[in-house]
Amino acid sequence: MSTATDTQRKAPAGERVADWADGRLGIYSLAKANMRKIFPDHWSFMLGEVALYSFIIIILTGVYLTLFFQPSMGEVVYHGSYEPMQGIRMSEAYASTLDISFDVRGGLLVRQIHHWAALIFLAGMFVHMMRVFFTGAFRKPREINWLFGFLLFVLGMFTGFTGYSLPDDLLSGTGVRFTQGAILSMPIVGTYISMFLFGGEFPGHDFVARFYSIHILLLPGIMLGLLVAHLILVFYHKHTQFAGPGRTNKNVVGMPLMPVYMAKAGGFFFLVFGIIAVIAAIATINPIWNIGPYRPDQVSTGAQPDWYMGFAEGLIRVMPGWEINLWGHTLVLGVFIPLMVFGLVLAVIAVYPFVESWITGDKREHHILDRPRNAPTRTAFGVAWITEYVVVFIGGANDLWATHFHLSLNAISWFVRIFIFAGPIIAFIVTRRICLGLQRRDKEKVLHGRESGIIKRLPHGEFVEIHEPLGPEQLHTLTAHEQYEPVEIGPTVDENGVKRKVSALQKLRARLSKGYYGENNQIAKPTVEEYKEITSGHGHH
Ligand code: HEM
Ligand code: HEM
């Protein structure tokens, strides 16, 4: 029993701190509402986490690099500890990156972790985006979060580009020159943008300092804001889940944030950090001391951008060098068209959720994920997009393919020029057929059970394979998906026989909708009657 003296006794220190903070920040109600938030489990949900943790690692290592990096193009003569470069003229940026690599304690490792984390960050984001795409997690209400993610992806690419341009070595200088060429190909605005970035003629004396503030402040600042918004929205919408017994569009089945998910996430952070650190410790990335300082009159051989810029590079490498003259101005189509295609391919990603919901006419909320096979047209689009990406990526490394595999550079360029068009079409057709095949297989499994591999001989000599019926859980998972009807135009004449006007847009939408959910584009799910009929013994194997 408590007495008056008991209640007046001072609360433990931890509780007093918590009370103090709660009185000012209201954390108790905030924590109470969110600590038990449920997160569903699936291996593919960790891909966003990989992106998140590598981003944190990038920031941590980036801060360390800022302590030693000199963002200046002022010329110095090198006198550091790397012997082969003694007495060579170079920019302060390049010299300080050499110092980070050879004279700063732990500098090379941190530089390598920063660079490797950047590569893994973008790869993580890319695969995360694919996961969201192929499972339809971008559907209502998550379209805005898809857009936030998309912006993160684009900004991530440019942050990476500005980052690897900072050391002012021959490789990055070649990349910057390439970018300046692309900027200049833009009519009217190109020269202005180039002036703003380079402060005059290329390369000038300013771009490292300008890229530096863009790289360490402007872009990461915007990204951090977007990322917080992205994660708040994941919290607010709750995470999607795959279909399964007991899972509906109105609940989330999984583990609570505290303590289970937090413990897992914390461990996973250290795992990601550890793996990146090991890779950075054993695999050299960007050995600028082998490449040398940038001089505009030199180009290093085998010059390749980081992987996420390979797509842009490839588009330009395989494009014929077309040029036209208009009113005394030269329009370099060989560069301008690839630049526009690059923008277009990115724009398609951004608007896809809105286009799909317009085509399918589906305005409902979705919290249960699709299995990619059950959305064959979407899956086929995704694979076609990736195919395009890979083909152009090959084009971006045409010189390396040529030297490593003893192929002709022209043959590779022609391969890319043909498959840039043919590749996505073939991938689309093949993927859709595979998806439909898998749907048929699911149907077969539901109705006739799983092939057990056990062959039985019947008394009259016939051989049959025993099929094992599926358990209720699997039956549920294989039949939980919804099947849509395509959007119809409806009758073109009204009840009085008067012709109704149907716009070209409506017609296009109906055709596309048929492409998504028409008769040949999805396999009808087994009905309960069919299932009962077959499992009751009539169609028994
Ligand atoms: C800085 C980069 C990014 C980070 C750190 C990040 C982080 C995350 C995390 C941790 C989740 C929850 C776990 C998961 O589903 O994986 C998530 C969900 C989500 N992300 Fe990202 N993401 C990033 C970029 C992107 C991109 C590029 C897209 C798409 C264009 C995207 C779209 C989404 C969507 C729609 C969800 C909700 C998925 C669901 O509830 O199933 N994110 N993100
Ligand atoms: C998404 C975010 C970021 C990405 C993708 C990224 C990527 C890169 C890359 C690829 C390099 C070239 C590294 C090399 O091989 O030398 C680099 C350099 C650098 N980054 Fe970042 N970075 C990011 C954010 C940051 C932030 C937030 C900071 C600082 C707070 C930072 C500071 C630096 C510095 C000082 C350098 C030049 C030193 C060097 O090249 O070693 N970075 N960054």
Automatic annotation (TrEMBL):
One Pfam family linked to the record: Cytochrom_B_N_2
Under Enzyme Commission nomenclature, its number is: 7.1.1.8
Query: Transmembrane ranges?
Result: 45-69, 113-134, 146-166, 178-199, 211-236, 265-285, 326-355, 411-431
Which coenzymes or cofactors are required?
heme
Known catalytic reactions: a quinol + 2 Fe(III)-[cytochrome c](out) = a quinone + 2 Fe(II)-[cytochrome c](out) + 2 H(+)(out)
- The source's domain of life comes to Bacteria
UniProt keywords, alphabetically: Membrane, Transmembrane, Transmembrane helix
Q: What class of enzyme is it?
A: translocase
Residues annotated as domain Cytochrome b/b6 N-terminal region profile: 17-243
InterPro entries according to UniProt: Cyt_b/b6_N, Cytb/b6-like_sf, Di-haem_cyt_TM
Q: Provide the protein name.
A: Cytochrome bc1 complex cytochrome b subunit
What is the organism field in this record? Streptomyces gelaticus
